Amino acid sequence: MLLEITAIIRRDKVAPTMRALDALGLGSMTITTVSGRGRQGGNIMTDIDREIPAEYESVSKITRALTPASFALEHSLTRPVFWIPKRMLQIVIPSAMKDDVVDVIMSVNRSGWMGDGKVFVSPLEESLRIRTGERGLASI
To answer: What is the pLDDT of residues 74-109, one digit of tens each?
Structure first.
């Protein structure tokens, strides 16, 4: 049986996550740039403001060392909603590798702060390699 692991992680954790997955023998994965918001509702906290680049289109540039969160608090904006840039990794694996892959992703990406990400595990009905027509485990 095949599984698809989808992980939403911080942008600065992509390289360490890829190295850890490579060490497990997983070289094949898809990485996509995504934006979203989690349980915090898109509120930018001072601790994660460092993750938002100055040129990011949804974030207003605020001068005098204010962060979006401190600006909002000082101006009675209780829920500034921003789409936070993340990376989405998608990996197809044999079901026997599930625990190892999930453990590696969790250990590399857990900082204890809001915004560490999510991991989703889904069964995959079929996998086919277009070039050769291989199916199942041979195609991943």
So the answer is: 655 444 556 788 999 999 999 999 999 999 999 999
135 band by pLDDT with thresholds 50, 70 and 90: very high
Domain 2-139 has CATH 3.30.70.120: yes
Would you kindly state where each structural domain of the chain is located, as residue ranges? 2-139
pLDDT at 18 over 60: yes
- Alpha-carbon gap, residue 118 to 69, rounded angstroms: 23
Distance CA 19, CA 39 (A): 28
How is residue 130 written in tokens?
């277009």
Q: How far apart are CA 86 and CA 36, in angstroms?
A: 7
Residue 67 to residues 11, 49, 59, 134, Cα–Cα distance (Å): 19, 7, 10, 52
Which tops the pLDDT comparison, 31 or 115? Answer: 31
User: CA 38: distance to chain centroid?
Assistant: 11
